[in-house]
Write a structure and sequence with these properties.
With 396 residues, this protein is an alpha/beta fold. Helix 4 links the parallel strand 11 and strand 12. Strands 10, 17, 18, 19, 20, 21 and 22 form a seven-stranded mixed β-sheet that branches. The protein has three domains: 60 residues, Urease, subunit C, domain 1 (Roll), CATH 2.30.40.10; 112 residues, Diaminopimelate Epimerase, Chain A, domain 1; 176 residues, TIM Barrel (Alpha-Beta Barrel). Helices cover 32% and strands 26% of the residues. It is globular, with a radius of gyration of 27 Å.
Length: 396
């Protein structure tokens, strides 16, 4: 009889194990928010291949799933992975390898950081990002005299926090084939800031493209993506929308995801150019488990802080200055018409009220009532009240 009971017990245990689904790991004793319609909470869940396969009570999950790893959350709060709807993932990674100027409170503080970076890295060309003259006591753009004196032979090109202005020294101008007096006097979609007919060192939007910097190596690009992943994972991000990347960067992301080195899920907006339009539109949407390429990032105008946002009225601190569109107006019509014939989205950066008006009208003309295409305006920072109803043309 004892042998019979033991046999039944073994059979029962084996049957129960067979009925339990295998999970990579199980979490118990959690304060887990499901973020479903009822915003219900659960105390346990099971995960397999990076996905939730069961959510419920401790008993329900442990009875239904089996795993070699069980994590006791000790009643800590757990939420689903966060998604950043607009970031510059690749740019973040590269910036981590350059001088960080975020939070600087003066021009002199920037100079000290640049000097320390030069001494530490022995850099032949100094690049960085993060300065914002609006955070300084003297809220005006810097001029390059001090920069020239400190770095007479080392090119310096540092980007404003919004990415729409660049501050350079004479050495960087020379490296780019320019000088304080030798530069394009008129360009579309940008501006060379001058004083007494000479460059101050501050370049806005399209003018930034005239400055040459050393190309990043593939090793630096790979390290940048992995560094960005480490930072974003630490904040609970599991998907990022990278707002404007090149084909080569997208290809690199795809290859690193395939090898398992890059685990971040990425919705990549292709930086618009005719070459990229000609390549991606015929191919159609590209979708893997971790990469989603289905949109083009178009640049409508600049930013407010660098006075590049396209406004209907002139800036209060710059009389008769209105900012500017990045492209000629007709170019937006051409781009929208091409994208409208495909399944791709058009995602356009527009901050000023004038830029938003133009892009909204462009969308309306191109979409012809197709308001389910999920075209976006990135930022929509300043919108004229009469334009709000125009958003009905791009959202269901």
């Amino acid at each position: 009889m004892k042998k019979f009971i033991l046999t039944l017990s073994i059979i029962g245990l084996f049957t129960a194990c067979q009925q339990q689904e295998k999970a990579d790991f199980i979490v118990i004793n959690a304060n887990a928010y499901t973020v479903n319609e009822g915003f219900d909470k659960a105390e346990s869940f099971a995960v397999k291949d990076g996905k939730f396969i069961g959510v419920g009570s401790n008993d329900a999950i442990q009875n239904s799933f089996i795993s070699t790893e069980t994590i006791d959350a000790k009643n800590q709060t757990i939420v689903p992975g966060l998604i950043d709807a607009h970031c510059h993932f690749y740019g973040l990674g590269l910036s981590l390898q350059k001088v960080d100027l975020r939070g600087t409170k003066s021009y002199d503080e920037i100079l000290e950081k640049l000097k320390a970076f030069k001494e530490e890295k022995k850099a032949d060309y100094i690049t960085g990002r993060g300065w914002d003259q609006n955070d300084w006591d003297v809220k005006v753009f810097p001029t390059k005299e001090k920069l020239d004196k400190l770095f007479p032979n080392t090119p310096v090109a540092i980007t404003r926090v919004d990415g729409h202005a660049l501050f350079v020294n004479e050495a960087a101008l020379k490296y780019s084939g320019l000088s304080s007096t030798k530069f394009p006097k008129k360009i579309t979609g940008g501006e060379f800031i001058t004083k007494n007919g000479k460059l101050t060192g501050v370049l806005i939007d399209a003018a930034m493209g005239y400055i040459k910097t050393p190309s990043t190596t593939k090793k630096e690009e790979i390290q940048g993506l992995l560094d960005a992943q480490k930072v974003t994972f630490s904040y609970g991000l599991t998907t990022v929308n990278d707002a404007g990347v090149s084909k080569s960067t997208i290809d690199l992301m795809d290859s690193l995801q395939k090898t398992g080195d890059l685990k971040m899920r990425i919705y990549a907006m292709v930086s618009v150019s005719q070459k990229n339009l000609d390549y991606y539109l015929p191919k159609g949407i590209i979708k893997t488990n971790r990469l989603n390429v289905r949109s083009f990032k178009v640049y409508g105008d600049g930013a407010l802080g660098s006075r590049g946002a396209a406004m209907r009225k002139s800036y209060s601190d710059r009389n008769n200055h209105f900012g500017a569109l990045i492209f000629e107006p007709k170019r937006y019509t051409e781009i929208a018409a091409q994208i409208a014939k495909s399944d791709y989205q058009m995602n356009t950066h527009a901050i000023g009220d004038s830029a938003n008006t133009h892009i909204l009208k462009t969308y309306k003309s191109a979409l012809k009532g197709q308001n389910d295409r999920r075209w976006k305006i990135e930022h929509s920072q300043i919108v004229s009240p009469e334009d709000f109803d125009m958003f009905d043309n791009i959202v269901p």
